[in-house]
Specification:
Elements (H helix, E strand, L loop, with lengths): L25 H4 L3 H5 L5 H14 L18 H12 L6 H10 L19
């Protein structure tokens, strides 16, 4: 008998969901529901969104935000998601609400801070 070990590639164990999205153009893609449906709302994006929404809902003077990151890191895609979330007339508005509330982690579960209630959206 041979004692040859079977070597598996990483691809045998890991599946990466490919969105197939090219660079996002906020102005052109705002009405494209399929593009909004492909966005993955990460924990970092949720924290950033919570900070932004808290300032919108308060009398805080901080009303402008800067998102920084390398090319292709999702800055415009995040902006598109946020615009769809806040724009009740946006075709993807309901989908973004569903993703926010039914996503893997709800904002209310993040250590009691940066809570965003359904009233804010």
């Amino acid at each position: 008998m041979s004692s040859v070990k079977s070597v598996h590639s990483l691809a045998a164990f890991v599946r990466i969901r490919q969105s197939g999205v090219r660079s996002v153009n906020v102005e052109q893609d705002l009405r494209q529901t399929k593009i909004a449906e492909g966005y993955v709302l990460t924990a970092q994006a949720r924290r950033s969104m919570a900070r932004i929404l808290e300032s919108v809902d308060s009398a805080a003077p901080q009303r402008a935000w800067t998102l920084t990151g390398p090319y292709g890191s999702g800055k415009s895609y995040f902006g598109l998601f946020l615009m769809n979330l806040l724009g009740v007339s946006s075709p993807a508005h309901l989908h973004t609400l569903e993703q926010l509330y039914n996503g893997p982690r709800n904002l209310d579960s993040q250590k009691g801070k940066n809570k965003v209630s359904k009233d804010h959206a």
